[in-house]
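Interim report, section 4.2 (structural modelling).
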Amino acid sequence: MLTTWVRTLIVQASWNYDRMVGIGVAYAMEPLLRDLPGGKTNGRYAAALKRVAGFFNAHPYLTGMAAGALARVEYDGVPEAQADRLRRALIGPLGSVGDQLIWAGWLPLSMAVGLIVAVLASVPAGVVAFLILYNVVHLGLRSWGLAAGWRAGVGVAGELAGRVIHGGLRFGAAAAPFSLGVALPLVASWLLQDFGDSERVGAAVVGSLGLLLARVLAPTLSGVRLGLLFLGAAILAGWLWQ
Amino acid sequence: MTDGFWWLLLWGTVAGLDLVSAGQVMVGRPLVAGTLAGMLTGDAAAGAMVGMTLELFALELLPVGGARYPDYGPAAVAGAATAAGVPGVLGLGPAIAVALVVGYLGERTVQLVRRGNSEDARRNRIGLDAGDPACLGRVHGRGMLRDGIRALLVTLFGLALAAVVRRWLPLDLRGAVLVGTVAVGAAFAVAAAGALRLAGRGAARGWLAAGLVAGAAWVLAQ
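Predicted structure of the assembly:
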């Protein structure tokens, strides 16, 4: 179980467009399958690896849940067709729940807290606060997911529908935007503290124009492209201004 | 050569690997990568400022599934190397410009690695479809190696670009302040757009507004 958990930390190393995270999940669950009766000679060992190493996608932090559940059904002797149906059924929920819970909830929330601490205390303190806060939930979710998948097997969907996940989704949907809202003015005041008044007004003008462009031209004009466009123009203007 | 070059190269590679392949414990976030890179160059304040600014760019991203996203870890390291030792805010604009170029390059190279992984999987289809654990391990390991080399090369390019910009960027004092001002403005535009997209149209937008009011009140109270 520990080896599988460690392997889930590198589950996306072979991410590709054909199989997405399938190879990584198969690689992660392989140690769990070694204890099948007969070990590697058990026909289900290779069949399970082949199945999972095909197309599979999930949020990386919940791949342990998939690995646990898909390994468990092999131990439980679930018919292979049903095991394959479970694999396909997990793809959507493990992706969307993870994305909402982590990428749209916990990551922006903990980063906002880190930024607030950085402004109010010190930047290194903000970094430490962010890393601890974020990873307590991140690593906890990986551990819980693997254990829950292994425990539930074919009934893993019930674990995903549990109160903890639902509570986390509801909390993140409110707390993430609120904390980002608090952080943005604080970071603005911190970053602009060494600029003069005219530069502050200039930054506000650039920010408003950029926000307008970003809203109108999204998703074509991503943040990095908008930044490159604005900074390229500013460097050119600064060079001509000399 | 930039002070602490080898440490910066190592740190940028680790931060680049953290983006997708290894851990995703978020040491590759610009706030983290930039702050530590600043310490490695001996100018913690410059690294912190680059990290904070670049983090605003990164806030717009939700790294879902196979989405394309800039590699801001090596970018923050290159940005911190650009700004190190430059007084006040004068290094901020050029540093963010360098970081965005490196981040964009990182985004493109992630696509190359994914295509390389696809090719590798196709070449090893027989072993993978036979459920061969050794073949699985080799394909997976090569994916990790590919991404490690990618992160190393992106960081190397970033540090080289930082050295070039520090030496030859044709900006005087006014120009440097102008570029810094635009960098901060653009960063807030991107962060605000990201926050609005995150909040969507429902009650979450109300929470975002409430947060903005609370944050602004806090700033004004100071």
